[in-house]
Amino acid sequence: TCLRAISNLHFRVYANMGIDIARKHVKKSSRTAPVSQDPYLRLLVKLYRFLARRTDSQFNTIVLRRLMMSRVNRPPVSLSKISNLIGSDASSELITVVVGTVVDDERMHVVPKVSVCALRFSEAARNRIIAAGGRALTFDQLALERPTGTNTLLVQGKRHARESTKHFRGLHGKHARPYIRKGAKTGRKGENTKTRPTM
Q1: 20 to 30 Å CA-CA from 40: which of 15, 48, 57, 118?
Q2: 41-80 burial code (b ≥16 CB/10 A, e <16)
Q3: Quick one: CA dihedral 97, 153, 144, 133, positive or negative?
Q4: In this structure, are residues 150 and 160 in contact, taking their beta carbons and an 8 Å threshold?
């Protein structure tokens, strides 16, 4: 009787469980590992996965997610954008964090003294940051210095700044640029038609 009671209880517990039929075949779209086989990037993912698990900092969770993103979703950030975001009264302790590439902006005459951490720096951007007395850090250096991301500023570039997105109907509707032949984008005889070319 005791075994029968236990088996009935076991059945009752599992009888209430069901299958989510509506989302039966829906896969999780978020990445659990980077597609890139770059060993340095994979070591950073390992490091920030540990920090995200062992600390309560949301900063580490966000950095981990961005490290695993595709390159299209990690657009570059210019020095001028970093300069505008931190402002003139920026603290010397503040570190700007970019999970992507930092590039130079030739239109800027003076680069302020800033500390920037990024996956990659263009050569000109790195030289200008160091010449201004700032620092160009890597993510392993940042993990040692600021393991929980205190006094940091996370920055992202514009994802829809690419030329190809100007043709996307989903973003621009009827104002999306048409696809036309190369070399005929400007000038008087660039694909003269009675109607606008269809997508």
Answers
A1: 57
A2: eeebbebbbebbeeeebebbbbbbebbbbeeeebbbbbbe
A3: positive
A4: no
Alpha-carbon distance 159 to 70, whole Å?
11
Q: Is the dihedral of CA 64, 32, 43, 161 positive or negative?
A: negative
pTM, two decimals, is 0.78
Structure tokens at 62: 């966000």
- Gap between the Cα atoms of 118 and 158, Å rounded: 16
- Span 78-130, pLDDT tens digits: 999 999 999 865 567 899 999 999 999 999 999 999 999 999 999 999 999 99
Task: Output the six-digit token pair for 169.
Answer: 């109907």
Q: Is the pLDDT of residue 7 over 80?
A: no
Place of tokens 């600390």: 55
